[in-house]
Amino acid sequence: MSGAPSALQLVVGLGNPGPEYQDTRHNAGFWFVDELARQHGGRLRIDSKYSSEVGQISIGSHGLWLLKPLTYMNRSGQAIARFASFYKIPRPAILVVHDELDLPPGVARLKRDGGHGGHNGLRDAIAQLGGHDFQRLRLGIGHPGDARMVVDYVLRKPPLAERQLIEQAMDEALRVFPQVAQGQLEKAMQALHSTR
Q1: What are the residue numbers of the active site?
Q2: Mind listing the pLDDT tens digit for each residue in 115-154?
Q3: Cα dihedral 133→134→138→142 (10° resolution)
Q4: Which residues neighbour 157 within 8 Å (Cβ) at sequence distance 6 or greater?
């Protein structure tokens, strides 16, 4: 879809459910949605109909749904598609927040569209939503340097200094988030991408 992006209706954080995954790099999307809810007075509750934690927040007069699929990363798209279909939310009005191997810790980047880049959560979201024209927030986690180590790397807890860098990048993204929510993606991108 070309032209100005839609105002957001749904923010999805990607991750894996359960305490064993809670602090792993692959759960950066969950971390972001949790903090977004906290900052805007939202509460996430398990909704078995959507196999997700679901919540709502308002930014000014703009209401937003928050979603954390509990279907495990590789099947994230099932929960997203079920929720978006029920509430008739178009793909361009969805922001998917995920960990990004191709960015170092401390860097966050917004993206309007694109492929899955090998990320299984994005791969399933694209397949289940029937297209890739949703917005993304990519939270850098760095790369282990060897493709054979990726699975182990993303499912590990980052060292404290690295976690702090990821949280700093999340803070920067949260600062520009009101612009993203209103559909001012280009303005938000300029502000966020100029921080590094």
Answers
A1: 26
A2: 998 899 999 999 999 999 999 999 999 999 999 999 999 9
A3: -50
A4: 23, 24, 25, 163
